[in-house]
Amino acid sequence: MSVVVFGLMLIEAGRAARNEQAQRARGGVEPDGDVYRIMRIAYPACFLAMMGEGWLRGTPRLAVFVAGAIAFALAKGLKWWAILSLGPRWTFRVIVVPGDSRVVSGPYLYLRHPNYVGVIGELVGVAGMTGAILSGALAVLGFGGLLVRRIAIEECALEATVVPPRT
């Protein structure tokens, strides 16, 4: 499980790094106040904590593991749908290019921040797969709090620099 979770995380990190360079080359700006520095440590730490708790608790019931695996797979699917819909605009950091239009295709037709919904789903899924009752709940609440702050920063940056989509 750790190979899958952290392997996919590394793939996403590589894509994000390439996209960050592309966004900056297009004049992208990063707003002040983002919580990225904390998120870059907290995100993998949440998964490590849940895997550690799971190791201490032992294997969860099969039904709980399967439910967690399904939640994780669905969350990853949603997250990658968002990543592919954003294309080179998707990064780990909030970087917006002044004058760009807001993406309203793919999952963005239905959700304002599908990537972040996917992230919470990943945490819930791994909590289920590992049986991490305590660290799973703390991860969802703690990282969820970081995402609330992140969304506020992102919304302000988008409102200030991005052109509304044409209807």
Please tell me about this protein's structure.
The protein is mainly alpha-helical. It has helices at residues 2-25, 36-57, 62-86, 114-130, 133-161. It contains five helices and no strands. It is 70% helix and 0% strand.
Counted by DSSP, the helix tally is 5
Query: What best-fitting shape do the alpha-carbon axes yield?
Result: elongated
Query: What portion of residues is helical?
Result: over 70%
What does the average pLDDT come to? 95
SSE series: HHHHH
User: Can you summarize the main beta sheet?
Assistant: none
The proportion of residues in beta strands is: under 5%
Distance between the termini: 43 Å
What is shown here, in short?
This protein is an all-alpha fold and 167 residues long. It has five helices and no strands.
Please tag this protein with its features.
mainly alpha; 0% strand; 5 helices; 167 residues; 70% helix
Give a topology summary.
Layout: H1 2-25, H2 36-57, H3 62-86, H4 114-130, H5 133-161
Helix pairs in contact: 2-4, 2-5, 3-4, 4-5
